[in-house]
Structure prediction request, 500 residues.
Amino acid sequence: MKKDISKLFNLLEQFKKNLNDIKLKEELSQVLDTFFAQKHKPIEDINKLNDVFSKIPDNQFVVDRLRLNIELKKEEKIEHYKKLFVDKYGSNLIDDKNYENLSNLIYFLGLLDESVAFELIVEIINILKFKSVNKEYIPFLEGYKLIIEEKYTQAIKEFDKATDIDNNFWYAFLYIAYTYFATKKYRIAISYFHKTLEFTEDIQKDFFVTIFLYLAESYSLIKDYKNTVKFLKKSLNIKTDIAHVNNLMGYSLYKLKMYNDALFYLDKSIELGKDGLYPYWNKIRVYKITGEFNKALEVIEILKTKTKSKKLLQNEIDSINKLKKKHKKRIEPSKVNLVLESEKIIEDEKEITFVPSPLNKKTSGIQLELEEILEDLLEIRLQKNKQTFGKYLKIYSKADDPSKYGRQFRTDTGRMDILTQNLEDNSYVIIELKRGKSDIEVVEQIQNYINWTINNLAKPGQAVKGIICIKEATNKLKTLVKSLPNIELFEYEFDFIKIA
Prediction:
């Protein structure tokens, strides 16, 4: 680390002589991020950095100065730089073009301790309420504040308010996608990442690599490896040395049975040395499935020098030796140059570049409402083609438009809980869970969704129906639904059965 510290101080000395060198400042910021990311920083390095900062004008590196004083626990300086942060980045939001300053603000907040970030964003929101600022910024910042509090459902509602004000607010769509990803709703996240990509001409190019990586990760988590490879390829075309990307590419190609290609990327991951032992284990997977057992054992010999998990390694050796006995005849890997062959599954699209602050908050301890749990269970059931509400339904999706996915489906009149199609008669069926709405409101809402679907999706003569699912229906709701032949009402219950 001494070498890096030396580089940091050299860069700071250069910057002191030329405070307007933007390229130098960007390089410095990256090195500072690396410094602060260390878990253990020698106190002498922190104090030396503080001394160097004291010789640079006060309005430079505000975020890093704040981080430094948090490390040093200097309360007076912390308060000073918190005020400077609010003045500097809060005022930049007024007359912000293309959300550039907003994205910088969110990135910088992501670098700070959560408690400090929360305090700062509250202060900025309060100031902006009395300033001439884009109206959509307030609900967006409220949404980000709720993310810090891990209140993800409420956060999405605030981001929705922002997009209702400005339907071209791509940065809010991006954070809706991040939030769904954080709550493991990957299919919905995918639809919103694709929605964000619709604004390609306006978005800062540096952000795209992050969207591609989140899309690749989301597709991987739903086991869609073809699309995983597609978006990993896009990110690698922009930046070749991102940690874990080459390893995930190798694993995805292994799942697609493109073994030579998989080995190419796994070797690259090992060469970069940024993803621990994972690429080694993935190479073992490839060699086992292609019958190259001796090569798998050679990788294990390398792992013996890198891990103390002797029992795990011995279990793998035993597994390989059993396979060797079963497979007397070696499976030849394809002779085709698969590194070139894999290009066939990548669509030729305009390549772009980008990196905002990813959602880096904790996702543990999420409190979901009962209806959200039910919604998750319904999605799983529908994906498995199980009969639901007495019908065989599939979640609506559009093959040529990944941004159209039927869960939390966005319309001009709101967001449908689940939009499905009946496999028997191809009718549309809208499933709505009553979430704190009055009986009249929930009926009006689903009727609005039915009308929207008739006008925007259904073909002439294609039926559109609705289902209201509720824990316990009132007599008033039952009476209302009985008068509407295109809407059905279902109650649900959760049971816990003691078995021991």
In short: The chain has 22 helices and six strands. The longest strand covers residues 414-422. The beta strands are 393-395, 407-411, 414-422, 428-433, 464-470, 487-491.
